[in-house]
Design brief:
Elements: E1 9-13, H1 18-29, E2 33-38, H2 43-47, E3 51-54, H3 60-66, E4 72-75, H4 86-106, E5 111-115, E6 127-130, H5 145-159, E7 166-172, E8 175-176, H6 183-192, E9 198-199, E10 205-206, E11 209-210, H7 211-224, E12 235-238, E13 244-245, H8 246-256, E14 265-266, H9 268-285, H10 295-302, E15 305-307, H11 310-316, H12 324-339
Parallel strand pairs: 1-2, 1-4, 2-3, 4-5, 5-7, 6-15, 7-12, 8-11, 9-14
Antiparallel strand pairs: 10-13
Length: about 350
């Protein structure tokens, strides 16, 4: 997939992460000049001869300095995980995103693509085939600081859209694939330790997105973004467009790792009650350690999460290049190679 127009100078925040690395590689491969901004230094980016700038989103000056000479920004960086102090999520996700927007305006940068999440519209109930007209829940309805801070950040980014800076937010759901250092490793680890359960019977429909497809969506949005573009100032759900039962999604990933399917279940009520107890206990005794179960996680695992992606198809020309089955095949090959 090539860019539409002349090559650009593009800053990718969080360019060393799972999705950020894939986006950076795709931009580089099509001829753009890429600079990444993150706290660490990554060998994968060195191999691709991609410039790396180390810094922190919480420092406006660091963000500002990283944008010198850039034409566009893809803002992927965020605090991973669902557990931690509310203040940390707010500083990194919300205030960090404000720094990105404000620095982009200061430099006269014209395009900003923001990586959001469908969780910004999840107040705990099932989300079955909803589109982008779904409202944000009230801030106190969120069960975790992760979606609450992302909701604030997304709203700030989209409100900033205008003649001087065009913005768009993408909401990829459950990103997975080779190189994943979060979802797949946790799933495999829990399965091998005998600590993996389905919450409910696993029939709740969910959708996900393969990492290459998620990265493609970012490039498509970047290429179409302009003050007058149909995508300007809007948010878009990004998935495979293949909702399936949660148990099928989990067991497909376990099969790719050569592991047997998960058959054990716990009730939704027990999972939510356990999450509430564990959250309280960890906040008091082990605040730095994420509980095995939280109310937010229980809700995510037991409710429907699939989305209407017609808007992304219409405005961004987004169509998943790899199907779920094709992605699982690539994941299986990768896991076999990395465990030999």
């Amino acid at each position: 997939m090539g860019g539409e127009g002349d090559p650009m100078n593009i800053l990718v925040t969080g360019g060393g992460g799972f999705l950020g690395t894939k986006i950076s590689q795709k931009l580089k491969d099509r001829g753009d000049t890429v600079r990444t901004f993150q706290r660490g230094h990554y060998a994968d980016l060195v191999e691709r001869d991609i410039e790396q700038v180390q810094g922190d989103l919480t420092s406006y000056q660091s963000v500002h300095d990283a944008m010198v000479g850039m034409d566009a920004v893809i803002h992927v960086a965020a605090k991973a995980g669902i557990w931690g102090p509310e203040s940390d999520y707010r500083r990194i996700k919300y205030e960090g995103s404000r720094h990105v927007v404000d620095a982009a305006k200061a430099h006269g940068i014209k395009r900003l693509v923001y990586t959001s999440t469908p969780s910004v519209v999840h107040g705990g109930d099932s989300l079955a085939g909803i589109d982008e007209s779904a409202p944000y829940p009230e801030l106190d309805e969120f069960l975790s600081p992760y979606p609450r801070s992302k909701s604030l950040a997304e709203r700030y980014v989209l409100k900033a859209h205008g003649a001087s800076l065009a913005t768009v937010a993408l909401r990829p759901h459950l990103i997975w694939g080779p190189g994943d250092n979060h979802l797949i490793p946790r799933l495999i680890d829990r399965a091998r330790q005998g600590r993996l359960f389905l919450v409910g019977d696993g029939s709740n429909l969910v959708d996900s997105v393969y990492v290459d497809n998620a990265a493609d969506a970012h490039l498509l949005a970047l290429d179409r973004l302009a003050p007058e573009a149909s995508c300007g100032g809007k948010a878009y759900f990004i998935t495979q467009g293949e909702p399936m039962p949660m148990k099928d999604l989990i067991n497909a990933m376990l099969s790719a790792a050569g592991l047997p399917p998960c058959e054990r279940t716990i009730s939704v009520g027990i999972a939510k009650a356990a999450g509430a107890v564990l959250e309280t206990a960890h906040k008091i005794f082990m605040p730095s350690i994420e509980p095995r179960m939280t109310r937010f996680l229980a809700s995510q695992l037991s409710t429907a999460h699939y989305y209407n992606i017609d808007a992304a198809e219409r405005d961004l020309d987004y169509k998943p290049r790899l199907s779920f089955a094709e992605g699982i095949q690539e994941l299986a090959v990768h896991l076999q190679q990395t465990t030999q």
